[in-house]
Specification:
The complex is a heterodimer of chains A (161) and B (468). With 161 residues, chain A is of the alpha+beta class. Chain A folds into 2 domains: 65 residues; 84 residues. In chain A, 57% of the residues lie in helices and 24% in strands. Chain A is built from 3 helices and 4 strands; from the N terminus they run ααββαββ. Chain A has a 4-stranded antiparallel beta sheet with strand order 1-2-4-3. In chain A, a hairpin with a 3-residue loop joins strand 3 and strand 4. Chain A is rod-shaped. Chain B has 468 residues and is of the alpha/beta class. Chain B has 2 domains: 283 residues, Nucleotidyltransferase, domain 5; 89 residues, Threonyl-tRNA Synthetase, Chain A, domain 2. Chain B has a 6-stranded mixed beta sheet with strand order 8-4-1-2-3-14. A 5-stranded mixed beta sheet of chain B has the order 11-10-9-12-13, sandwiched between helices. In chain B, helix 7 crosses helix 8. Chain B is rod-shaped, with a radius of gyration of 56 Å. Chain B starts with a helix and ends in a 15-residue tail after the last strand. The chains are: A alpha+beta (161), B alpha/beta (468). Chains A and B meet through helix 1, strand 3 and strand 4 of A and helix 11, helix 12, helix 13 and strand 15 of B.
């Protein structure tokens, strides 16, 4: 009788243990899936952290410098023009206009080719509070000339874009 | 401890209403008696409670002790048994019987074989199996005379001898020839005077010898082995010796059965004999065999189920370890994730939208840079500075035009330069599609190429985006 009980006990315990193995394997698979997702989350967070650093370093300062009003934007464009007009022979080709993203001012420039220092500055020309876009760039025997669009985004009502 | 328990056996002999029981321990073929008891048959069932490895023997009022002659051509056990039953049908009438048989002689032409058939009648014999606690514990079961024969075979180093056993008024005689039990008989000695007992026993022996000599020729018993109460009666021994002039020996298994005195050996001689009964002289009923088979099956199943359980336990442990490791890994990853979440700065939707707009604007206005263009054209510019360069964007399209001029003194240098120029152009064309117009005057050795956009198209991906 004891042996029969022991056999029964062994069989029942074996079945229970088999069920336990299945349960462990199922749970292990579930946890492995969660771990996989968590690792993806961690990788994404790492990317987000890098993006945050990049945003803090390059994007946020620009946003901070961005004027709040259209008037302030126009003032910035005019001021930038005046600050650089003499060095690059700026001439207004299209006066301040807007397309919803910001205020624009198109200017022409001309620098003599032998003036290497100014040429170097021209190549690195930038507008801290906004953007510059070279629309035209001509290099001939004597000079470098072209057309630059000065862009000044502002925060008042231009975020819809 | 298990070994000790396994080697403990209980050997029981029942004569009339008296039970002789021994508890013995076996080690390397030597039995040590741990306990001896003589009690009433009524107490046997209680005695055998929880007793394992039980050897049984009992006196049977009726036994089958016949010789059957069967043709040599029958070899099959089942056929032989049926033939024996058929031949003995008159003797055993309608009673159920258990029997064993063995060959004792063959005729001169080897055509027939004489079998000794020993059997017990089931109705009386099966009562023996009412006593054991569990039938599977019965290791051996036989009648008293076969227990005596088996012990005498173990004790006597001769192939033809006579065994005489007596206890109370009962006397058992066995005739052994060529190590085979050729004749046996049990009788009750009833005498009025004690002094007549000796002559009565001698008469019994004389009759047995005479019968065996008559039935089996050329039998010369080399010894008369006495046992039981007879063995401790010196006078009877002397009388037998005087009567037959045959060496007298006493069954005294003290070399392989320890723990009993000489007299005690004789009191338990049949119980001791149980330990040495071979398969041929055992009568194990089918229901006992079934119980033993069932028990064996249970043992095998228990071992197998235990083994399976052990293996499954091992796999369970392995699965648990894997699960546990995975759980540890989960905790580790989760804590890393929590740390990362804490460390990661969260931005409001508005703030992100602001950044997004800023990036959209930057994307739009930083896509065309003359410096990026010059960087792309570097292989050509390094070869020869362009005389003129025109670069313009309109409606998100880019247009570029470069003019190269160079004078040469030899045609070879012009040719080499032109070759290098076209190779550089080819290199640029892998990322940026340009076309060229060759206006070189080879007569004047004046190199002149105009390189322009193949068509107005978007600028190539910029190598480095600069914040302006």
């Amino acid at each position: 009788m004891i042996r029969l009980i022991a056999i029964g006990f062994s069989i029942v315990l074996s079945i229970l243990l088999l069920s336990t193995i299945s349960w462990f394997e199922m749970e292990e698979a579930k946890i492995a899936e969660i771990n996989k997702k968590n690792l993806i989350h961690i990788e994404n967070l790492k990317k987000i952290q890098k993006i945050n650093i990049w945003l803090d370093k390059y994007v946020k300062p620009s946003i901070m410098l961005r004027p709040d009003t259209a008037l302030e934007a126009e003032e910035n464009l005019v001021k930038y023009f005046d600050d650089n007009a003499a060095l690059y022979n700026f001439l207004v080709s299209k006066y301040i206009y807007s397309d919803g993203l910001g205020k624009y001012l198109d200017v022409t420039f001309e620098v003599k080719r032998e003036n290497n220092e100014t040429l170097g500055k021209l190549m690195n020309l930038h507008f801290k509070k906004g953007f510059l876009q070279f629309k035209e760039f001509k290099l001939d025997r004597d000079s470098i000339s072209g057309n630059i669009q000065i862009i000044q985004p502002f925060s008042e009502d231009n975020n819809e874009s | 401890m298990i070994n000790l328990a396994m080697s403990i056996s209980y050997t029981i002999n029942i004569q009339d209403e008296i039970v002789a029981a021994l508890k013995v321990k076996e080690k390397s073929g030597v039995y040590t008696v741990l306990e001896e008891q003589i009690f009433e048959k009524d107490e046997l069932k209680e005695y055998l409670v929880k007793k394992k490895r039980v050897y049984l023997s009992a006196d049977q009022d009726e036994i089958l002790d016949e010789k059957v002659v069967i043709t040599n051509s029958i070899k099959n056990d089942k056929v032989l048994r049926n033939t024996i039953l058929h031949k003995l049908s008159n003797v055993i009438s309608s009673k159920n019987i258990m029997f064993n048989y063995y060959e004792i002689s063959r005729d001169a032409h080897d055509e027939t074989i004489t079998y000794q058939v020993d059997g017990v009648y089931e109705k009386e014999y099966f009562k023996l199996f009412e006593y054991p606690d569990e039938l599977e514990d019965v290791k051996s079961a036989t009648t008293s005379r076969y227990a005596l024969f088996s012990l005498s075979q173990k004790c006597i180093d001769s192939d033809s001898y006579l065994v005489v056993y007596s206890r109370g008024s009962k006397i058992v005689l066995l005739a052994v020839s060529k190590n085979k039990l050729i004749f046996s008989r049990a009788s009750t000695v009833i005498v009025d005077k004690p002094e007549d007992r000796q002559s009565t026993i001698v008469d019994e022996i004389s009759r047995t010898i005479a019968y065996t000599n008559q039935q089996f020729r050329d039998i010369n018993f080399s010894a008369i082995a006495i046992s039981g109460s007879l063995a401790i009666d010196d006078e009877v021994c002397e009388h037998i010796y005087m009567a037959f002039q045959t060496p007298i020996t006493v069954l005294y298994p003290n070399t392989f059965v320890k723990g009993l005195s000489a007299e005690e050996h004789q009191s338990y001689i049949l119980a001791i004999g149980n330990l040495f009964v071979g398969k041929d002289f055992q009568f194990i009923p089918d229901f006992v065999k079934s119980a033993q088979t069932f028990s064996l099956s249970k043992n095998i199943l228990l071992v197998l189920s235990s083994l399976v359980l052990f293996i499954i336990m091992f796999f369970t442990l392995e699965a648990y370890e894997n699960y546990s490791n995975m759980l540890d890994r989960f905790s580790s990853i989760e804590s890393r994730l929590t740390r990362m979440v804490r460390k990661s700065e969260m931005h409001s939707k508005e703030e992100l939208e602001k950044n997004f707009v800023q990036l959209q604007i930057a994307e739009k206005y930083l896509q065309y840079r003359p410096s990026d263009m010059l960087l792309t054209l570097k292989p050509l510019i390094e070869l020869e500075k362009p005389v003129s360069l025109e670069w313009s964007t309109k409606n998100e399209n880019l247009y570029v035009k470069l003019e190269f001029k160079k004078a040469f003194t030899t045609l070879e240098t012009l040719h080499e330069f032109e070759h290098s120029f076209l190779a550089a152009l080819e290199e640029i064309n892998s990322t940026y599609q340009l076309k060229y117009t060759n206006k070189t005057n080879y007569a004047k050795m004046s190199f002149e190429y105009i390189v322009s956009s193949a068509k107005k198209k978007k600028a190539p991906p910029q190598r480095r985006r600069r914040r302006r």
